[in-house]
C-alpha cells in the first residue's frame, strides 16, 4: 500500500462495510453492533472497526469524514482492500413534507450537486446517480425496529456546501430530492465505476425547509443505532 493513504489496516476488512461519516458514530455503532470490535483504521482520525455483527457475520464500520473528496478516497481504498458491499449511513436535512425529523430515508439515487461525483463519473451537475438495486430493495424491505417510522425511499441530493446553500434549495426541491447531504453521490459513482454494490440509508436530523428544527442528541444516538440495525438487516 502507498504511504499517503487513509486506511492504515490493523485488522482484517470485511467484504460488508457500513460507512458513517462521523468517526464518533463509527465508534458508537461498533460498540453496539459488533462483537469484540477491533480497530481497522485510525489514520487521519477516520476511525474504523471490524468484528462480528448481530447477524453472526463479519462486518466493518469505517468513517469517511465529511464531503465527497474524503469519502471517495476512503471508499477507493476499501475497495482495493476487498470491500464488495457498502452502505452509507448518516444524517441528512429534510427537503420534503414526505420526511420528518427522526425518520429514515433510503436513497434510491443521488442527485449530483457536488464536484467529486461529477469529476469521477463525467456526468453533468444534477445528474441522477443510481444506488445498487439489490441493496436498495433490501433496505426498503428490511424491518426497522424500535418503533421507528417507515423509511421513505427516493432521491437525495449530495452537495459540497453545508452552509450558504440557500440559493440551491429550490432547485433541489424541483428535482424531487427528499433530503440533502454531502457524500452519497460520490460513493454511488465510485461504486459503479469499480463494480461493487453501494446503498444508502439516512436519518433526517433537521428540516431544511418548512418549520425549522433539529433532532435532540439522545434521540439522534438512539436513531443512529436503528439505522445501523437496518443496514445490517439489508446486508444479511
Summarize this entry quickly.
By secondary structure, the protein is α/β, with parallel strands linked by helices. The chain has seven helices and ten strands. The longest helix has 19 residues, at 217-235.
List keywords for this structure.
globular; 5-stranded mixed β-barrel; alpha/beta; 236 residues; 7 helices
- N-C termini distance: 30 Å
Mean pLDDT: 92
Biggest sheet record: 5 strands, mixed, barrel
Mass-distribution shape: globular
Our count of helices gives: 7
Strand arrangement across the biggest beta sheet: 5-9-8-6-10
Which structural category fits the helices and strands? Answer: alpha/beta
Describe this structure in words.
The protein has 236 residues and is α/β, with parallel strands linked by helices. It is built from 7 helices and 10 strands. Helix 1 packs across helix 7, helix 2 runs parallel beside helix 6 and helix 3 packs parallel to helix 6. The longest helix is centred in the last third of the chain and has 19 residues. The protein is globular and about 45 Å long.
Topology:
Elements: E1 16-19, H1 23-33, E2 34-41, E3 48-53, E4 58-62, H2 68-80, E5 85-94, E6 104-113, H3 115-121, E7 128-130, H4 133-141, E8 152-159, H5 169-174, E9 177-181, H6 184-194, E10 197-207, H7 217-235
Parallel strand pairs: 1-4, 1-5, 5-10, 6-8, 8-9
Antiparallel strand pairs: 2-3, 3-4, 5-9, 6-7, 6-10
Helix pairs in contact: 1-7, 2-6, 3-6, 4-7
